[in-house]
Amino acid sequence: MSRPDIEDLLDSLGVSGVLPPKVRATDPVIAGRRTVGMPPAAQPAGLVKLTVRIDQELAGRARAAYMADAARSGVTSLSEWIATAIEQAVDTVEDRVNGGAPFAPIGAGRVPKGRLFNGSPL
After folding, report:
1. Structural domain boundaries, residue 23
2. How many CB atoms lie within 10 A of CB 73?
3. Which tens digit of pLDDT belongs to each residue from 65-79?
4. Given a cut of 60, is residue 121 above it in pLDDT?
5. Taking the C-alpha atoms of 72, 74, 78 and 79 in order, what is their torsion angle to the nearest 10 degrees?
6. How many Å apart are CA 44 and CA 42, to the nearest integer?
7. What is the pLDDT of residues 7-55, one digit of tens each?
8. How many whole angstroms separate alpha carbon 69 and alpha carbon 65?
9. Residue at a domain's end among 45, 62, 77
10. 91 located within any domain
């Protein structure tokens, strides 16, 4: 059922104005726009897709934390909020094990699948 149909149904029941207005989503993930398989010129500059699997409860807590933190942080999308969290974690590990120097980036497809042996791929 499309959104106008839902609004018509609610109006017929005497309930109106309960749905939030539609807003234009600018985040490609939220807007449902795929970037995988798009020509590089059509993809957002400098952004790549990183897929991870996490526990369902952690995913829900992350969404709740984003919603609670969005106004304070000024972050406007869940993707941006999670990217910031990943960047903070990377900075912490670089400080702890690499003297604060940035790691050399590793290309996609280079990280072994599954768990690392003894915590290090090297």
Report:
1. 1-45
2. 12
3. 999 998 888 888 999
4. no
5. -140
6. 7
7. 676 677 766 665 555 555 555 555 555 455 555 555 567 888 888 899 9
8. 6
9. 45
10. yes
> Does pLDDT of 61 surpass 70?
yes
What is the reported pTM?
0.58
Contact 39, 51 (CB under 8 A): no
Tokens of 25: 């989503």
Distance CA 43, CA 3 (A): 29
Report d(CA 77, CA 59) in Å as an integer.
15
Contacts (Cβ under 8 Å, ≥6 apart) of 96: none
pLDDT for 1: 42
55 and 39 within one domain: no
**Apex 54 CA angle, 52 and 58, nearest 5:** 135
